[in-house]
Amino acid sequence: MKKFKGTGVAIVTPFKNDSSIDFSALGRVVNHVIKGGINYIVVLGTTGESVTLSKDEKKAVVCYIKEAIDGRIPLVVGIGGNNTQEVINQVRNTDLTGVDGILSVAPYYNKPNQRGLFQHFKAIATSSPVPVILYNVPGRTCSNIAADTCIQLAHDCENIVAIKEASGDMEQIMKIIKGKPENFSVISGNDMDTLPIIALGGAGVISVLGNAFPAECSDMVNHSLKFNFKAAREIQFRFLEMTELLFTDGNPAGVKAMLSIMNLCQNNLRLPLVAVNKPIYSRIQKAIDELK
Is 164 a catalytic residue? Predict the structure, then answer.
């Protein structure tokens, strides 16, 4: 799917001091990443703190981002969970007009086996009127979509077009790339893994860092996709510490600290997440200053 090639950004959800959604800041971040040359936006993902948003808030965020994007780039909406029927209900009840795909995370907590994962995603794909991107992030879900399961879904379900792979398991990722159909994409789900995954045949990244540094992330991905790995490595290494700081005290705490320093949004998260501690904030500030 060409729409999901290159740099996607898992967009944050800015909050005001009273924890309400800051739509003005959300608009600033959307325009910031589009101006930086990213290829598509992913809303209501982990980085967007989607699990802390009510149904009405999710609807409002998606509607606002559709208007802010105004058809300039594709939009992917996160719709996932560990109750298959509820996920299907959400897909059916969400206005997907102007939405180019959904990102659906592997079920968490109830720890399904591979047969259960296959049937879960097959049912979602059958119900979805737009393409489905699988999201494999075992560090958060304790549920790994095995390479064979991913490959089977890619071959059997025409509507499943890609996987966001955040397992960090390069052997698994290589097996998926080797066995997948030609029209199925493997997308890096970790900023640190973007360059090696593209080198193996991946299609790009759904990035956290891209919220703050979209132009640099886009340049690195574009160089990689053109096999100009020397230039890509220079950017990757330049942002190595910054990428590490994204997750040192939790995501999206790291990137929200960066965005607050850049005056794009306030440094607010919803519980149970909290802002980065003062030493990490100081390190982020120093790293940004050194990049100027």
Answer: yes
> What is the per-residue DSSP string for 225-237?
HTT-HHHHHHHHH
Annotated catalytic residue, options 3, 122, 164, 256: 164
Helix (H, G, I), strand (E, B) or coil at 95: coil
Tokens 């992330």, residue located: 217
CA distances from 110 to 107, 127, 141, 142, 143 (A): 7, 22, 9, 9, 9
Decide: pTM greater than 0.90.
yes
Q: Tokens 């982020």 correspond to what residue?
A: 284
- Burial code (b: 16+ CB inside 10 Å, e: under 16) for 80-104 equals bbbebeebbebbeebebebbbbbbb
Domains and CATH numbers, the chain: 2-227 (3.20.20.70)
Q: What's at 43, amino acid-wise?
A: V
Instruction: Write out the two tokens for 157.
Output: 């379900």
pLDDT tens, position by position, 57-105: 999 999 999 999 999 999 999 999 999 999 999 999 999 999 999 999 9
Verify whether residue 281 is a known catalytic residue.
no
Place of tokens 């049912």: 123
